[in-house]
Amino acid sequence: MSDIRSPRGKRPASVVGGALLMAVRAFSGAAVIVTVLVSWDTYAATIVINGERLGGVDPQAAGAVLGWLLGAYAVYLVLYLGLAVLVLIGHNWARVVAMSFASLSILLSFADYALNGAEITLRTSLAGVTVDILILLALSSANARHFARARGEARAGR
Questions:
Q1: CA distances from 142 to 77, 118, 137, 152 (A)
Q2: Residue 158, Cβ density class (10 Å: 0-12 exposed, 13-18 middle, ≥19 buried)
Q3: At what angle do helices 126-139 and 13-38 cross, to 10 degrees?
Q4: pLDDT tens, per residue, the chain with 158 residues
Q5: Do 62 and 54 touch, CB atoms closer than 8 A?
């Protein structure tokens, strides 16, 4: 068994698992984007601004808003996938940022439930919350922390 503190040590399963879960989260987001693109008119019709359905008043503006939202989400997903790669490499700051994103996502789901009465079901946010909790558990483990810190120390020593 290799020493986790060694910069050349084997990657702990918790780091690999956390990075894989982050990749799953990113690819599931890409599936959401594809779903919206396939049913573009249906989703564009649901956009509400100032209490008024924009799709019924100005379909082009609704499409533009939806396009900007999907574009911003796609950029976020690419950056999140890059963060997963940095976690896998062993950057401690990336591990901390990933855990912060997972915590924020869990808190937002809870706030939606507490303030808006949104149900947490398989159809809504249960899968996402579950993945976020698993990411937190994996990346907050002692093995993941020691691995990331050892890699950081090795990089600083070069």
A1: 27, 35, 10, 15
A2: exposed
A3: 160
A4: 344 444 456 899 999 999 999 999 999 999 999 999 999 988 988 888 877 777 677 888 888 999 999 999 999 999 999 999 999 999 999 999 999 999 999 999 999 888 988 888 877 788 889 999 999 999 999 999 999 999 888 888 77
A5: yes
Are 126 and 137 in contact by the 8 Å Cβ rule? The answer is no
pTM, full prediction: 0.84
Amino acid at 34: V
Q: Is 138 exposed, middle or buried (0-12, 13-18, 19+ CB in 10 A)?
A: buried
Helix (H) or strand (E) holding 58: none
How many other C-beta atoms are found inside a 10 Å radius of the C-beta of residue 58?
Answer: 15
